[in-house]
């Protein structure tokens, strides 16, 4: 792919950040006319604003913005002859637009009642959701954008396919499967967050069994069970889903440094109570 339009669409669909670089003003002789664009990612560039030192400098600035996680647009003026040594000798004004908010990659194991209430909430946030279950009939016929369903007779296999830094939630219909998934996720040790739906009794039972399987106390401490914000009341599937989504939002906002509109909406639903221990 070489055109900036196709690259921009592809990276937007994949939830991957990039910078749209636009030559917005030209004075004198410049390599390309105003309106030339390119899309820059940490590893690649698509299309061109003219090559040479101007493009080399623009690539460096765009990748600096990506590395810092910047979201604000930036204008830069370049004197092509004096500062960049290009023979055309004009001047150019370049706009840098970071696109694609940081995306939380979330894998939900289990398509039961709570899963069906939770996944649409997560899909309305800056999240990419992988939804795993062995039972294809449990998935709804219509899925929100940004949700990928995975039918696997052995859901534990999907743990090996997690992206590093993923958020993981285990809420299947089978406690033995929950235990196997918990062990596999904790052995990876590279998840951003791991939540297991269940009671304090379930947590104690799982901790005992996982210790017997050789997992250290430091690994077990990474398991959130019961899961969900303490401040959300109710045991209906949607109430539990809101509790769990609110916890993920709070972690996501702390990680990326600003609240999303979706997070503020869900936070307003929170009322004083206790953490959920259903299922």
From TrEMBL:
Residues 12-78 form the XdhC- CoxI domain. Gene3D superfamilies: NAD(P)-binding Rossmann-like Domain. Signal peptide: none annotated. Residues 107-248 form the XdhC Rossmann domain. It comes from the Bacteria. SUPFAM superfamilies: NAD(P)-binding Rossmann-fold domains (SSF51735). This is Xanthine dehydrogenase accessory protein XdhC. It comes from Pseudomonas quercus. The gene is xdhC.
């Amino acid at each position: 792919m070489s055109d900036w339009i196709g690259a921009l669409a592809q990276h937007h669909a994949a939830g991957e950040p990039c910078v749209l670089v636009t030559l917005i003003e030209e004075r004198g002789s410049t390599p390309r006319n105003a309106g030339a664009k390119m899309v820059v990612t940490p590893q690649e560039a698509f299309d061109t604003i003219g090559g040479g030192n101007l493009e080399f400098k623009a690539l460096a600035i765009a990748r600096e913005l990506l590395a810092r996680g910047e979201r604000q647009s930036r204008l830069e003026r370049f004197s092509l002859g004096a500062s960049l040594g290009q023979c055309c000798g004009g001047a150019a004004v370049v706009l840098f637009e970071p696109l694609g908010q940081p995306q939380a990659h979330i894998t939900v194991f289990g398509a039961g009642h709570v899963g069906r209430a939770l996944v649409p909430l997560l899909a309305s946030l800056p999240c990419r959701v992988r939804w795993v279950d062995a039972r294809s009939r449990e998935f709804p016929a219509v899925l929100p954008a940004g949700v990928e369903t995975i039918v696997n007779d052995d859901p534990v296999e999907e743990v090996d396919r997690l992206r590093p830094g993923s958020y993981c939630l285990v809420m299947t219909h089978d406690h033995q499967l929950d235990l196997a998934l918990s062990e596999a996720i904790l052995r990876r040790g590279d998840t951003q967050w791991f939540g297991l739906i269940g009671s304090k009794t379930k947590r104690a039972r799982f901790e005992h069994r996982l210790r017997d399987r050789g997992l250290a106390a430091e690994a077990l401490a990474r398991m959130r069970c019961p899961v969900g914000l303490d401040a959300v009341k109710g045991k209906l599937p949607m109430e539990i889903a809101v509790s769990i989504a609110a916890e993920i939002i709070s972690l996501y906002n702390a990680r990326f440094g600003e609240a999303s509109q979706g997070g503020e909406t869900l936070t307003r639903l929170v009322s004083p109570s206790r953490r959920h221990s259903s299922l």
